[in-house]
Amino acid sequence: MATIDADAHVLETERTWDYLPAAEREFRPQIVATPDVEESGGECWLIDGRLHPKARNVGGDTPKESREMEDIAARIRHMDELDVTVQVLYPTVFLRPFTNNPQIETALYRSYNRWLADIWRQGRGRLRWVVATPLLNMDQAVAEARFGRDNGACGIFIRGLEGERRLSDPYFYPLYEEASRLDMPVCVHSATGSFTVHDFFARECGFSKFKLAVVGAFHSLVYEGIPEKFPRLKLAFVEVSAQWLPYAIHDLARRFGRKGRPLREDLLRQSRIYVACQTDDDLPYVLKYAGDGNLVIGSDYGHADTASELEALRNLKRQGEVSPGVINKILDDNPRALYGL
User: Which terminal residue of the chain has fewer beta carbons within 10 Å of its beta carbon, N or C?
Assistant: First the structure.
């Protein structure tokens, strides 16, 4: 049995932006020392005139050369120590809104994607990744999804809100069509792309601006019938635990009932929806709503927040709350089906 970490991270460095062509180097993010900005951890990225914390959410239990991909072999050795077969890599700097300029967004996402493609080539099949798509320009977003599919990406990264749009907005339909054609899941990660929401909750711990955006995206995508409109589309909801699923499904059932039609039974399986759980979720309770074929788990490798658990995958095997067969599905069968591994 393989052990697949469905949510690991890379921490971007100066090298991430070395793929910018000469005409786009004016957009290159700069590292700025910010000792007086407590939430920054001492350093920020300066992007399009705004500061974004660089050093705050850094997992000290991971080697710097591994989390920043300075040494791919070291990352893989650490995976071996953790009994992890494959990691699926998500970004860090893009978890918050960073520009409203389509040209800047496209330039930075392109450079990031080419950096990840090089990491994948060196990773001997063990470092897969989700491609960042510049959604301020849908044509470019589709082009980057195709580049990702051809260069080791196994999913498409999206935030709980993108700009001032909900993910059920028809604006995103071309991306969902292309994701279906490429057989790549759209992976809704704990994050927001809305400056309005991000700045409104600027002093908040992160729950409302990052976590609730993803729960809301799940609700609106199901309520607006996106899985039915795109019957080959796979969706994942990542780094918000799974403890909210019973509440969200119960609420949807009541709303669908008021419309005179029942909510799909076995909702996640029929809708091709996957959710990343945590080891401290009440898994027997969650499984009653999720089923055993649609939960995955990640370590949040490289980060240090409420979703981080470096040994999550190994700890799941030790818990004994659910049967070994279900654990095997969460660690192997389900992420393999989700990401097409």
Answer: N
Q: What average pLDDT does range 92-97 have in this prediction? A: 94
Is the separation of the CB atoms in 236 and 155 below 8 Å?
A: yes
Question: Looking up tokens 């019973």, which residue turns up?
Answer: 246
pLDDT digits (tens, 9 = 90+) for 124-150: 999 999 999 999 999 999 999 999 999
Pick the CATH number of 4-24+72-339 from 3.40.50.300, 3.20.20.140, 3.30.70.20, 3.40.1050.10: 3.20.20.140
Spatial contact of 304 and 340, defined as CB atoms under 8 Å apart: no
Cα 191 versus chain centre, distance: 8
Give SS3 for 2: coil
pLDDT digits (tens, 9 = 90+) for 268-322: 999 999 999 999 999 999 999 999 999 999 998 887 665 567 777 888 877 778 8
Instruction: Round to the nearest angstrom and report the end-to-end CA distance of the chain.
Output: 13
Q: In DSSP terms, which residues pair with 193 in a beta bridge?
A: 162
Query: How many Å apart are CA 190 and CA 175, to the nearest integer?
Result: 19
pLDDT tens by residue, 222-244: 999 999 999 999 999 999 999 99
Full-model pTM = 0.94
d(CA 44, CA 256): 45
Place of tokens 């990744």: 129
Res. 264 pLDDT band, cuts 50 70 90: confident
Contact 129, 119 (CB under 8 A): yes
Q: What is the C-alpha to C-alpha distance for residues 69 and 63, in angstroms, rounded to an integer?
A: 10
**SS3 of 130-157:** EEECCCCCHHHHHHHHHHHHHCCEEEEE
